[in-house]
Amino acid sequence: MQTQVLLFGIVADLVGESSINLELKMDGTVSDFKKKLTETYPQLQNYNTYVIALNESYALDDTIVKDNDVIAIIPPVSGG
Amino acid sequence: MSNISIKLTTDKLSLDECYNFVDDPTCGGIDIFVGTVRNHTKGKKVKKLDFSAYGPMAIKEMELIAEKALEKFDVLKIAIHHAEGMLQIGDIPVIIAVSAAHRVAAFEACQFAIDTLKETVPIWKKEHFSDGEVWVNAHP
């Protein structure tokens, strides 16, 4: 399934895009997504201090990514 | 949610707006935290800060913080306003205002809200120096 992935902060700079599309297998987990992400963008191999949000809520590594989910990569936040 | 005011905006934040929102005849105190852009970090001179946000999620997370603050502390109303875009030294990136019948709850809720915001709300700042720029906290 094609999934939309939003990138922010340093991750957007490293990839050079603020939004990408990744082909993911059905019923994979957030963990599987992260693997696919680093395979596709090796520049992220040395940068893994981010968490994942699905549909605007924080997700865990074992959360299932469903078709049409919006994935966001959230590097350490620094608001305030 | 008439007791909660959340805002993420490229406009200048307004202390009056936050104050007026939380002001209430039943409150005995209002606590306001104002974040300001500092002119230095770790000995380096900062020129300006660029705030970017994952807008829809940032608003949701700020709403969650406000709801939790109302649940956890004996407070009446809370406003959490955050700015995005390029801010200059002295500008205000964040205002948190809390009203309560008694001051202790207002102080505690205000501190809880700003501390949690800095941990969970997807907003990022880039510090601009005279010799370059860096994402704050990107390599914790």
Can you tell me about this structure?
The complex is a heterodimer of chains A (80) and B (140). With 80 residues, chain A is of the alpha+beta class. Chain A has a single domain (2-74), classed as Roll (Ubiquitin-like (UB roll)). Chain A is built from two helices and five strands. Chain A has helices spanning 9-15, 30-40; strands spanning 2-7, 19-23, 51-54, 57-59, 70-74. In chain A, strand 3 and strand 4 form a beta hairpin. The radius of gyration of chain A is 12 Å and the shape is globular. The mean pLDDT of chain A is 96. With 140 residues, chain B is an alpha+beta fold. Chain B has one domain: Alpha-Beta Complex (Aldehyde Oxidoreductase, domain 3). Helices cover 31% and strands 40% of the residues of chain B. Chain B contains three helices and nine strands; from the N terminus they run E-H-E-E-E-H-E-E-E-H-E-E. Chain B has helices at residues 15-22, 55-72, 103-120, and strands spanning 4-9, 29-35, 40-41, 44-53, 75-83, 85-88, 94-100, 123-129, 132-135. In chain B, helix 2 (55-72) packs antiparallel against helix 3. The termini of chain B are far apart. The model of chain B has no long low-confidence stretch (mean pLDDT 96). Chain A binds chain B through residues 6, 8-10, 13, 49, 53, 56-58, 72, 74-80, and chain B through 35, 51-54, 56-58, 60, 82, 93-94, 114, 117-126, 135-140.
Which parts of chain B are unreliable, with pLDDT below 50 for 5 consecutive residues or more? none
Per DSSP, what share of the residues of chain A sits in E-state strands of 2 or more residues? 25-35%
**Count of folded domains of chain B:** 1
Report the sheet with the most strands of chain A, covering strand number, pairing sense and barrel closure. Answer: 5 strands, mixed
Helix segment count of chain B?
A: 3
CATH fold-level name of chain B: Aldehyde Oxidoreductase, domain 3
**Count of individual domains of chain A:** 1
What can be said about the biggest beta sheet of chain B?
5 strands, antiparallel
- The secondary structure category of chain A is alpha+beta
Query: What gyration radius of chain B follows from the Cα positions, in whole Å?
Result: 16 Å
Distance between the termini of chain A: 37 Å
Which term fits the overall shape of chain A?
Answer: globular
Task: Provide the CATH architecture of chain B.
Answer: Alpha-Beta Complex
Strand content of chain B: 35-45%
